[in-house]
Amino acid sequence: MTETRPTRGEGAASSADGRPVTEVAVGVIIRPDGSFLLAQRPAGKPYAGYWEFPGGKLETGETVAHALARELEEELGLDIVASEAWRVLEHDYPHAYVRLHFCKIHNWRGEPVGREGQAFRWHAPGGAIDPAVQPLLPAALPVIEWLAAELPR
Ligand SMILES: Nc1nc2c([nH]c(=O)n2[C@H]2C[C@H](O)[C@@H](COP(=O)(O)OP(=O)(O)OP(=O)(O)O)O2)c(=O)[nH]1
């Protein structure tokens, strides 16, 4: 598993205008047919009802890979065998300035279960975004474009 531990040395701990950065580990879980897993944010969280790639915030001292494995087990009951650091994206929301560490996952054990009562859905690669998974979080949208750009033409 790729180990990335964001520290003061590796990425700014605050945004350009001084907001604290919330580090988030996000899983792009991809099946052999290229479909990927999206989940709906449960009630009680900012942007409840929006769709996203599953994941969550790093706890103090935690690596991205460890946070990802913990969150995907907690939220979906998946046992992550391997994850691969892929892209990092920062987004300034009214509720938080987030740094999203997107990791690709091709190797896991188990079938997803919405342990927090959340809906989830496998989305086909390429083509239009399924209305069933809208609205998407603003900072999840580029990921779908990155995945589509990797498809053979
Ligand atoms: N998981 C996930 N979070 C995303 C995506 N895009 C995006 O902007 N975010 C933002 C939304 C939130 O501000 C933050 C994730 O925090 P969260 O509240 O879901 O984290 P968590 O599960 O650890 O929450 P909690 O412990 O506070 O309940 O990242 C995405 O695709 N997946």
TrEMBL record:
Co-factor(s): Mg(2+)
Domain Nudix hydrolase: 20-145
Top-level division of the source organism's lineage: Bacteria
Uppermost EC category: hydrolase
Catalytic activity reported: 8-oxo-GTP + H2O = 8-oxo-GMP + diphosphate + H(+); 8-oxo-dGTP + H2O = 8-oxo-dGMP + diphosphate + H(+)
Enzyme Commission number, as recorded: 3.6.1.55
UniProt-recorded Gene Ontology molecular function terms: 8-oxo-7,8-dihydrodeoxyguanosine triphosphate pyrophosphatase activity; 8-oxo-7,8-dihydroguanosine triphosphate pyrophosphatase activity; 8-oxo-dGDP phosphatase activity; 8-oxo-GDP phosphatase activity; metal ion binding
Any Gene Ontology biological process: DNA repair
Assigned keywords, A-Z: DNA damage, DNA repair, DNA replication, Hydrolase, Magnesium, Metal-binding, Mutator protein
PROSITE patterns: NUDIX, NUDIX_BOX
Keyword Secreted listed: no
InterPro entries assigned: MutT-like (IPR047127), Nudix_hydrolase (IPR020476), NUDIX_hydrolase-like_dom_sf (IPR015797), NUDIX_hydrolase_CS (IPR020084), NUDIX_hydrolase_dom (IPR000086)
Hydrolase is among the record's keywords: yes
Entry's family note: Belongs to the Nudix hydrolase family.
Name of this chain's protein: 8-oxo-dGTP diphosphatase
Annotated organism of origin: Chitinasiproducens palmae
Lineage: Bacteria, Pseudomonadati, Pseudomonadota, Betaproteobacteria, Burkholderiales
